[in-house]
């Protein structure tokens, strides 16, 4: 009955298929007639505007008023997160780039840097240290400017949790727990105070986080003339 009301035969489709946002493939609409952009997690859907089944999404009408559309959700109600148009399952660890690693959990995600954020101070053997991008390497490295731009040896850079050679005493690790995400939906920041750095000084550290997808805005009501 729904097909008879919404699906017309023969099909009349635009000559040029729609341009879909990144991560949204072209699929056939609910009538199996025209190509449409598959709806992603949290986006509105209905009989014609279908969800991306390759990501395990279905149109969820459970929280929608009768006679209205639904929202794309996982078929098994499992929580996930979306980053740059790609969906990740709850508990999945992924790397959007070689410089950060993220963890999808509870509908949101947190990310930690994979490149060391150490500080190189001027010294007699390297008065002008400079951090530069090295071709073929993901993380930038420190070089001594003016000394044929040679990278510094790894033992001259403090590794995470190691005692800095500038210190003559042990540096017991100390830090607070990560704060809640600064955003209630979408990207935000979490912060903490820690002394795990080259000089064993308390500093505020931040990392990316997401508390989940933002709810879709309600459709505007038609103007009454």
From TrEMBL:
Single GO term (MF): integrin binding
PROSITE patterns in the cross-refs: IGFBP_N_1, IGFBP_N_2, TSP1, VWFC_1, VWFC_2
Intracellular or extracellular location(s): Secreted
Gene3D superfamilies assigned: Thrombospondin type-1 (TSP1) repeat
Annotated SUPFAM superfamilies: Growth factor receptor domain (SSF57184), TSP-1 type 1 repeat (SSF82895)
One record GO biological process: positive regulation of cell differentiation
InterPro entries the record matches: CCN, Growth_fac_rcpt_cys_sf, IGFBP-like, Insulin_GF-bd_Cys-rich_CS, TSP1_CCN, TSP1_rpt, TSP1_rpt_sf, VWF_dom
Keyword field: Disulfide bond, Secreted, Signal
Primary localization: secreted
Ranges where the IGFBP N-terminal domain occurs: 1-75
Residues covered by the VWFC domain: 79-145
Superkingdom of the organism of origin: Eukaryota
GO CC term (a single one): extracellular matrix
Family: Belongs to the CCN family.
Name under which the protein is recorded: WISP2 protein
Species: Nesospiza acunhae
């Amino acid at each position: 009955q729904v097909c008879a009301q919404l699906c017309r035969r023969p099909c009349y489709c635009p000559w040029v298929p729609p341009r879909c946002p990144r991560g949204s493939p072209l699929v056939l609409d609910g009538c199996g007639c025209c190509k449409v952009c598959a709806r992603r997690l949290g986006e509105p859907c209905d009989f014609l505007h279908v969800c991306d089944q390759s990501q395990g999404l279905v149109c969820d009408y459970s929280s929608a008023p009768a006679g209205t559309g639904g929202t794309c959700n996982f078929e098994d109600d499992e929580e996930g997160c979306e980053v740059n148009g790609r969906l990740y399952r709850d508990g999945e660890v992924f790397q959007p780039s070689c410089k950060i690693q993220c963890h999808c959990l509870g509908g949101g995600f947190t990310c930690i840097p994979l490149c060391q954020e150490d500080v190189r101070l001027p010294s007699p053997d390297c008065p002008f240290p400079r951090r530069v991008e090295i071709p073929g390497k993901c993380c930038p490295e420190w070089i001594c400017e003016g000394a044929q731009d040679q990278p510094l040896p790894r033992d001259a850079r403090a590794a995470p949790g190691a005692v800095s050679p500038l210190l003559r005493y042990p540096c017991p690790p100390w830090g607070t727990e990560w704060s809640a995400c600064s955003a209630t939906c979408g990207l935000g920041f979490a912060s903490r105070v820690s002394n795990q750095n080259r000089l064993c000084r308390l500093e505020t550290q931040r990392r990316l986080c997401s508390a989940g997808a933002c709810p879709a805005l309600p459709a505007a009501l038609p103007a009454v003339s």
